[in-house]
Amino acid sequence: MSNILSITDLRKSYAGGFEALKGVSLDIREGEILALLGPNGAGKTTLISTVCGITTPTSGTVTVGGHDIQSDYRAARQMIGLVPQEINLEPFETVWNTVRFTRGLFGKPRNDTLLEQILRKLSLWDKRKNATKELSGGMKRRVLIAKALAHEPRVLFLDEPTAGVDVELRKDMWEIVAELKKDGVTIILTTHYIEEAEAIADRVGVINSGQILLVEDKDTLMAQMGKKQLEVELTEAIAEIPAALSQHDLTLIRDGHALLYTYDTRADRTGITALLNDVAQAGLVLNDVQTRQSSLEDIFVDLVSGERA
Amino acid sequence: MNWTAIASIYRFEMARFFRTLAQSFISPVISTSLYFVVFGAAIGSRIQEVEGVSYGAFIVPGLIMLSVITQSISNASFGIYFPKFIGTVYELLSAPVNFLEIVCGYVGAAATKALFIGVVILATSMLFVDVSIQHPFAMLAFLVLTCLSFALLGFIIGIWAGSFEQLQLVPLLIVTPLIFLGGSFYSISMLPPIWQTVTLFNPVVYLISGFRWSFFGIADVPIGLSLLAILGFTMLCLGVIWLIFRTGWRIRS
């Protein structure tokens, strides 16, 4: 897959000396969904704003479809759609006119059929004659998406599309994103909901303090860094881990009612057989056994706290 | 040039005007009528004629300028301030448009609205007094240029303003006094000599004088100077706006 967006050593410093982006380099492949994870203030929005032309970079280059965002800004910007984090809409104008305005602003000729398709896909068609201030928060967010899609962008930025959105609407949003991907749109979304990245992204990037810490295929990331835990529930509580089990990496949990064993799925031997044998040898009786995989969230927390340490 | 973008901005801005068409129409009609009642009846009974023109007719160009200038400024400053205030300015900044296209859209719409109001006031005036227009083309040119140049000034104010109060500040503190003291309702020849000289530093004098010349063929300053003044003012505003967009002042971080 070729890269549709290339960011090379992008830096942004503000007048006060604050460096929001410290040399970000990132390639985004055509047709993928990249989730950019990071805590508040990590530089996610600054990165997006710079690529979209809202913020001027201090140094570095960004090309979209081969077009430089500064020297060839018209061609570059025409390929980009942006759904901002804040709900910003002209309150008194109708949905239809607002969306039509954006298409025109991007220099595209009028195309009512296309706008109708977009509005229908986003369940906004019935609301097209309503002023945007009459819409609910979720509907307004959809209008922002419709606006971003009105000029048929190849790359869509969604800046925290589900921040402060209820669960149902979040699921809707994920479906919309999946649909867009089917249409061949490359999507970059920022979020601090790990489950969001886990649910819809192809690749995950982690950004913190203006630096990209990692970009990896989501599945690889989870497999590589995923630790698994085995919880061995005992029929009778024990006060301490028997000496016979000291060679295993065990923790006593739930007031001595269970043993927690952490192992690496990539290792040649997980050590489960040996552990269970030793447990039986030690005379402990098992009540239940369960395993759980660490989530992207654990990985993320590890990475970000590792960065801080 | 991205003409489609200019047309889109223009149409979007004009839609705001049409949403409030009735009040856009009624308020200039009422205020003009009031001016005629107050100035025409009260002062007009004492001043019969100014340089051969009846006082009622004499104030018509000044009245039109007063409204056109204030409207141009407020329309344009509000037009660009509002997107900044509600946050939709992100769209302008991320669109494939340059500063000239943004200015053409916003300033064009603001000037159109002001022009419309100017015409409404002229029509209202004709109900009260007998107005003749000696140089209709010059009159139109002056009107259009005034609308455009003050809409440019309004655009600058809108970008500069950080609050609605600031938006009102420049028109209220600077522009309105300049218009009132710029010979809207009197000929500067009626002033004592020292004030005549001081008045010549007021740029609005040149505008009103030129505009009045297009109606009655009488002027306080030479018509060429008036034309030069308004062209110079337009260029100055354009230059400032170009600088604003180049540096991203108050709009792009």
From TrEMBL, chain A:
It holds the Pfam family ABC_tran. SMART domains: AAA (SM00382). The keyword ATP-binding applies. It comes from the Bacteria. PROSITE patterns: ABC_TRANSPORTER_1, ABC_TRANSPORTER_2. GO terms for molecular function: ATP binding; ATP hydrolysis activity. Residues 5-234 form the ABC transporter domain. Gene3D superfamilies: P-loop containing nucleotide triphosphate hydrolases. Keywords: ATP-binding, Nucleotide-binding, Transport. The keyword Transferase does not apply. PANTHER family: ABC TRANSPORTER ATP-BINDING PROTEIN. This is Putative ABC transporter ATP-binding protein YbhF. The gene is ybhF.
From TrEMBL, chain B:
Keywords: Cell membrane, Membrane, Transmembrane, Transmembrane helix, Transport. GO terms for molecular function: ABC-type transporter activity. It is found in: Cell inner membrane; Membrane. InterPro entries: ABC-2_transport_permease (IPR052522), ABC2_TM (IPR013525), ABC2_TM_bact-type (IPR047817), ABC_2_transport (IPR000412). It is a multi-pass membrane protein. It holds the Pfam family ABC2_membrane. Coiled coil: none annotated. It comes from the Bacteria. The chain crosses the membrane at residues 21-43, 55-82, 140-161, 167-188, 200-219, 225-245. The keyword Iron does not apply. The keyword Cell membrane applies. Residues 19-248 form the ABC transmembrane type-2 domain. GO terms for cellular component: ATP-binding cassette (ABC) transporter complex. Belongs to the ABC-2 integral membrane protein family. This is Transport permease protein.
